[in-house]
Amino acid sequence: MADKITIKDVAKEAGVSISIVSYVLNNTEGIKITDETRTRVLKAAEELNYTANRIAQGLRTRSSKCIGIVNCLHDYRDTASMISNGVSSVANDNGYRIMTGLWSNKSEFNYLSAWEDKSVDGLIFMIPTEDFGTVDEEAHINAMRETGVPFVIVNGKTDEPDVSYINYDVYGSAKKATEYLIDLGYREITFLAGAIKDHEEKERYRGYVDAAQAAGIDIDVCLLKDLNKKLDTLKAVVANKSEIAFELVTAAEKNGMKIPEDFAVIVSNTEKFVEYLSLTSVNLMMYEIGKKAANTLINKVKGINSCGRVIGECKLEVRGSTEILKF
């Protein structure tokens, strides 16, 4: 019976959440937990022999020297590939192999078996910016906590103090793009998006607004459905993402307009086709995100715990769609 006790059992016995049990048992800093609650959790763990089980489970007789990548980015193939390449680079330098493709909708938690049978030493869990309910991040975090596997979340939206997050800088990408146009001399800058309702769209919009307000220029937003009405008035555009910029370029060509002669364009992310369209863009540095995730995980495997949220850098890539404004 003792071998089957889980963190859920401890939480139920103590009358608290799984997160509280994790915080208490891991002595997580920065979390306010009353002495009464802490005592209740420790007593429940002791009575259920859970702490002893965790220690026993931790006595792994060998290291697999393998990192597992849990890829939930099925609709973001370029992003997943770049992050995975970054992970592979660090893994190779440290003598680790990579196991990928451990997740599927049909069996959401199947990747945990790779840890339980000692096929991997830790997991990097990659989540899309917008999952639209397809990935329950909190449930996966709780499942990984329960097994004791070292793990890192890439692009997570939860905020658990005992979890390591590596996020790309969506907010900073639009802020940097807007600041660049301002530095070129533009004072009429439009933010173009399909909508502003999802996390990524809101964060990019916030970056644009902060840069514009800091420079004392007016906020001007155009949704894609209104582009044709607005096209003739554009001076400079921050496109929310590459697909939006493609629609903008297509509309401009149909109307006999030239970029950057008629208006400047900068994109807040970088897909492969952006280069071919010669669009200035902001690279979210996914390869570097993968490297940061791998280094963090390897440290955790070695017992060097570094929890908290790390925001990656983004890099401006200047191409032909922007130019210094001629007064």
Structure in words:
There is one protein chain. The protein is of the alpha/beta class. The protein folds into 3 domains: 57 residues, 434 Repressor (Amino-terminal Domain) (Orthogonal Bundle); 131 residues, Response regulator (Rossmann fold); 114 residues, Response regulator (Rossmann fold, 3-Layer(aba) Sandwich). The chain is 43% helix and 16% strand. It has 13 helices and 12 strands. The strands form 2 sheets. It has a 6-stranded parallel β-sheet, with helices on one face. It has a 6-stranded mixed β-sheet with strand order 7-6-8-9-10-12. Strand 9, helix 12 and strand 10 form a beta-alpha-beta unit. Helix 1 crosses helix 2. The chain is elongated. The chain starts with 6 loop residues before the first helix and ends in a 10-residue tail after the last strand. About 2% of the residues have low confidence.
